[in-house]
Amino acid sequence: MTTLPQHLQIINSSHCHSEDAKFSPFSKLPPEIRLRIWTHSLERHRLVEVEVAIEEDLPSDSGGARPYSTQNALNKLISGRNYTATVQALQLNSKLLRVTSESRNAALSFYRVHIPCHLQASKERIQGNAAPSMRTAKATKSIFYFNPEYDFIHLSKQGPAKHTFVDFLHDLKAYDPRDVGLLNLALDTNGMSLGLHAVNEVSEAPAKASFIDTLSRLQEIIWVAESHTGRAIMGPGVGFYSFGVRFNHSMPIKAITPSFDLLRRDPRPVGPELDFILTGSSDPRQLRVYWQELLRSWGIRRALPVRERVLFAYDSPVYQQQVYDTKTANKLLTEEQDHWLASQQHWHRFTISCAGKIPVEGPEELAKAVKPAIGFWLFPAEALGPLEGELWHMKKVFDMTNCWPELALSNLS
Questions:
Q1: Which residues neighbour 378 within 8 Å (Cβ) at sequence distance 6 or greater?
Q2: The pTM is what?
């Protein structure tokens, strides 16, 4: 197998731990020690994308009964509404669910919320010729195993919002034996502006109470500001000549695998490239404004503010280039480099005027380049500046040199 150049070698394998490590005398350990080891291996974060959508043609899970009138196996009231929650399924579930009966019981206990859902076959999504939403691509009816304390739900919207967000949040709590539900939420522009922020009235009393309780008890929110143009930046190619020509080697590359290890500080020398962080979404500060409006409209006065962070990452716009393991990461990086060189030739006059040469980076510059990371950055939301001014501009550039980011490294097979 051809070895990639040093500047294309991802750092993930040197920082992420593996579930495949073996310890021969494990079975001879006392049961309580084995259980603690199983549980410790499960204690990792996941960023799980969930698309909620109305399904008018589906029969109600409550057998035709009116919403919020039936109970689940935990004897808790469920919404019974006709909606689907489609979860991106690639490498979603822990391997411990299928190793031994002991490890499975430990995993089922750790992921204590077992809520009905549809699982999206992500590899089909990658290999398709089109770019279907999660809902329109093939999905199978299954169970979503969820841990409120460790998992972040990236709630995205498909179709009219209506009650879908409220119903799903209610059911997450109804299927939790501890009655906790959602603690950690991630939202992009559509999920917030067209989904959560659009909820202005809830008729059913149990749904309203559950919705208010969830917003009151949320611990963390991640505002998703990923970009399709955040690394190889050719001004004319993205519609902004003022952006010039540059390659941001530091910006992480988003994977579609949910599990990640969080490093409290990006260990790479990323400082010089923090001055030009490009997002293809609207200003994430607008999402914070919406959040404050949402709390006011529902009369929620939190004792402590929710922890807010902003996610920056490069997200490939082409499904065939999505990253889910080391092989696909290497493929994307190689194709990204080839496309970057081709873009410099295509915009050769502009490139020469900005950089003075083609290619922009020669062997000496590439030898000093920051190695790529598969995952995402997290910055404190307040580091993006005050919540004022024109916050709807697309392809927003942020100078984050005064705030070093956390680095979430995706677990790749």
A1: 222, 262, 309, 310, 311, 405, 406, 407, 408
A2: 0.91
